[in-house]
Amino acid sequence: MESLILLVNTIQRACTTVGDYGGGNNALSSLWEALPSVAVVGGQSSGKSSVLESIVGRDFLPRGSGIVTRRPLVLQLHKTENGTEDYAEFLHLTKKKFTNFSLVRKEIEDETDRITGKNKQISPIPIHLSIYSPNVVNLTLIDLPGLTKVAVEGQPETIVEDIESMVRSYVEKPNCLILAISPANQDIATSDAMKLAKEVDPTGDRTFGVLTKLDLMDKGTNALDVIEGRSYRLQYPWVGIVNRSQADINKNVDMMVARRKEREYFETSPDYGHLATRMGSEYLAKLLSKLLESVIRSRIPSILSLINNNIEELERELDQLGRPVAIDAGAQLYTILGMCRAFEKIFKEHLDGGRPGGARIYGIFDYNLPTAIKKLPFDRHLSLQSVKKIVSESDGYQPHLIAPELGYRRLIEGSLNHFRGPAEASVNAVHFILKELVRKAIAETEELKRFPSLQIELVAAANSSLDKFREESMKSVLRLVDMESSYLTVDFFRKLHIESQNVSLSSPTTDQYGEGQFRKIASNVASYIKMVAETLVNTIPKAVVHCQVRQAKLSLLNYFYAQMSQSQGKRLGQLLDENPALMERRVQCAKRLELYKKARDEIDAAVWVR
Question: 512: pLDDT confidence band, cut at 50, 70 and 90?
Fold first, then answer.
């Protein structure tokens, strides 16, 4: 089973290189969080560092007052054959071996400062340290910053909450085993590590309790109530540890000697002698190694399932993000034209009903235009007073002899001018909708999302074409109105004349300058205007659709295509200046996909070997 921990070690290192690490703000799904791990949690001065050094058998961790561990340290232990020399390697220094462990301590301090600076800040980016020694078991431990209660000088006021949040982000994951370090010479009820562990693991199924400083308890007292589970029961038995004293540390007492002293302490202790085989750092390391192997083995099916699902998701996303932009000008032009065709297809779908939007144009013709025409002020223009004034002014010094034809023409022309407003409004309303549909189609064209510069150019080109279409449409609809003024429908007035003669034969002659005659003129003009209105309600939409909608479907990007055919490679490259965020997303997805595929292959190989 030893290969399983080494396998997870390899995958964890690979995860960190692509930005996937526990406690990180991963924009992509995390493989790290699915991997079983052991996180070491404790308050400041709980003896956490001493426990780790006892397990390793080497003095290598930074020491000092305040917060010493300011970045997670992923400590990967590799057991080697007896007689081989101990050495260490950092993930960020792949080609360098450290045999002097005081230099390991110095490198941890320096690498911490490279990311956090020297002002006691913290960072969730882990340091990976691998130690190879015949005196260790295969095991991976994650040393987290010590929980604290007070910010020291130079640290932000939020440092207490920041550390707890980072630690919590690791230990709350269901695949994380919690190694909770508590000093025996303090009340277990006040232990920072046990308090946090209980919050994230209330049943104690993932928590290992470790009591340090048993040799420093007051004379006549012991920690048996805790160790034997009477005062604080956990799923796994408590383990007691006796670390090196400060005097031993100052004298650089060898860690192997310290391990022997620890064994002798428990074997000769009147309080803990009966538990000696289940106490000490060596026993703790073997227990954790065995359990971690077991947990990894039980999690392999779910890890493989997660990997396969994420491979499918990443491959789908990479398909959507598209391939990297080609360098060749011909390929770039082909790419641009392909995206333009995709945009035009979506734009036409909006107009033809495949997507929403086109129906709004029909609404302008079916409701807005007729409603606007009905609201025109014909009643005021054809009032008795207005008709008298216009007819009289049209006669000049010589009153009309039979029928005021010139007065009729001026009344009709004045009325027809009112149609210009609704005609112009219809053109502008359709123009606005077409521009909105361009914007929507651009946003809905997946291929274009990568290229903001090309989006801007296409919108500008499409809007420029729409402006020209609007000009032609405006001329056409106003021409329709002007045509009605240019030539009046003769048959309409002939019929009125015949009807008027019939009325004259059957009734007394009316005064051609009386109010009744003016009312009749107003009524006749109103009837004619109504007939023209019915015509324009049908012909204006035809002109608008022909000049704007139809042209938008046929030649929206024609001018843009002409420009592209003459563009040089530099210009094409500028249009394909991809959104940096999407470029970075594609790179990260590709790296993460490679990580998952390698992890799947390595897990499959390890399973088959077993």
Answer: low
Q: Are 352 and 573 within 8 A, CB to CB? A: no
DSSP string, 78-118: EE--TTPPPEEEETTEEEEEE--HHHHHHHHHHHHHHHH-S
Q: Both tokens of residue 275?
A: 């538990």
Q: What is the model's pLDDT at position 549? A: 95
CA proximity to 457, closest of 551, 545, 336: 336
522-573 pLDDT, tens digit per residue, is 778 888 888 899 999 999 999 999 999 999 999 999 999 888 887 776 788 7
Integer Cα distance of 275 and 284 in angstroms: 13
Containing H/E element for 430? Answer: helix 420-444
Q: What CA–CA distance (Å, rounded) separates 302 from 298?
A: 8
Distance of CA 554 to the CA centre of its chain: 36
| Under 8 Å between Cβ of 127 and 108 | yes
In sequence order, the 6+-apart residues with CB closer than 8 A to the CB of 137 are 77, 79, 285, 286, 289
User: Which residue has tokens 């946003």?
Assistant: 443
Which single residue is written with the structure tokens 């960072």?
A: 123
pLDDT band at 34 (very low <50, low <70, confident <90, very high): confident
First vs last C-alpha separation in the chain: 8
590 Cβ neighbours under 8 A, 6+ residues apart: 318
CA distance 331 to 325: 9
Check: CB of residue 373 under 8 Å from CB of residue 419.
yes
- CA angle, residues 195, 196, 198, in degrees to nearest 5: 70
Contacts of 273 (CB under 8 A, 6+ apart): 266, 267
* Torsion sign across C-alpha atoms 592, 593, 595, 599: positive
| DSSP summary character for residue 546 | I
The pair of three-digit structure tokens given for residue 398, joined into one six-digit string? 């010589």
Q: What is the mean pLDDT of residues 409-415?
A: 80
Residue type, 19: G
* Mean predicted confidence (pLDDT) in 89-110: 91
**Helices and strands, counts by H and E, the chain:** 23, 9
In sequence order, what E strands does 136-275 have? Answer: 139-143, 176-183, 207-212, 239-240
Judge contact between 88 and 53, C-beta under 8 A. Answer: no
Largest CA distance in the chain: 143
Render the burial of 176-186: b for 16+ CB within 10 Å, e for the rest.
bbbbbbbbbee
Rounded-to-integer distance, Cα 154 and Cα 257, Å:
38
